[in-house]
């Protein structure tokens, strides 16, 4: 039933994806959203997967692969880590990723990023990494990072496709359109480098306060809505000489 619904969804709101070539003569930036134990490591917390999940595992592999390439090329990388203060709720979700806990740390496959000079780590206490980058004096760490590095194309990966990734992309697109992020030109969301969680309907019905969240369905919706905001959705990311982003065959 779920697979039939997903296929129906994809036929009703088809999502055209692109093969994206990141030009070698431009500054490309990579943003990793919340690829941390509390969302990705089996049994690590209230919002962690209860068993191995192919979409999440694939996302980690693709994010790690791209991070290696960006670090080898000494290109700018920013990684957001969901990190909450105790007793400060983030409805509708239970306590998660408390500051100081291993839940709020990068997954093992990405822990090496902590030692890379081209990587900026930002802990955030809300869904939206753009808003979480605002300092008390009104400055924005993410905005300053884009401008300082003169980033023209931003590649986004992480979790959850339809929540923190989407919220960050929406705010970033609005800020770009307002002229706050010059010289940024393109925001690319890599579909295979993103993932979300799975709560089947029967589980939600039997768990008080839990909303159903079919993984493939919501992943597609998250990507679709990001494209509606003006982001480019990629099913392949390459480095090369191409100057433009082009649709795949």
TrEMBL record:
Protein name: Isochorismatase-like domain-containing protein
Transmembrane segments: none
Family per record: Belongs to the isochorismatase family.
InterPro entries: Isochorismatase-like_dom, Isochorismatase-like_sf, NIC1
Species of origin: Psophocarpus tetragonolobus (Winged bean)
PANTHER family: OS02G0606800 PROTEIN, PTHR47297
Pfam families reported for this sequence: Isochorismatase
Single GO MF descriptor: nicotinamidase activity
GO biological process, one term: pyridine nucleotide salvage
Residues covered by the Isochorismatase-like domain: 30-198
């Amino acid at each position: 039933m779920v697979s039939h619904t997903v296929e129906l969804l994809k036929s009703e709101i088809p999502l055209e994806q692109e093969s994206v070539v990141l030009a070698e003569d431009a500054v490309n930036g990579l943003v990793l959203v919340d690829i941390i134990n509390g969302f990705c490591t089996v049994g690590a917390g209230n919002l962690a997967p209860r068993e191995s999940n192919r979409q999440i595992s694939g996302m980690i592999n693709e994010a790690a692969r791209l991070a290696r390439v960006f670090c080898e090329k000494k290109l700018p990388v920013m990684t957001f880590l969901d990190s909450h203060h105790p007793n400060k709720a983030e409805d509708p979700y239970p306590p998660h990723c408390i500051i100081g806990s291993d839940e709020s740390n990068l997954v093992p496959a990405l822990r090496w990023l902590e030692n890379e000079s081209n990587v900026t780590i930002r802990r955030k206490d809300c869904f939206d990494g753009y808003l979480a980058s605002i300092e008390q004096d009104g400055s924005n760490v993410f905005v300053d990072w884009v401008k300082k590095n003169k980033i023209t194309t931003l590649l986004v990966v992480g979790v959850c496709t339809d929540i923190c990734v989407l919220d960050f992309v929406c705010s970033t697109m609005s800020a770009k359109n307002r002229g706050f992020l010059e010289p940024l030109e393109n925001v690319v969301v890599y579909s295979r480098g993103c993932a979300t969680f799975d709560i089947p309907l029967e589980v939600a019905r039997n768990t008080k306060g839990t909303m159903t969240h079919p993984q493939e369905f919501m992943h597609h919706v998250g990507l679709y809505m990001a494209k509606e905001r003006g982001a480019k959705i990629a099913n392949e990311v390459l480095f090369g000489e191409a100057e433009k982003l082009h649709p795949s065959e």
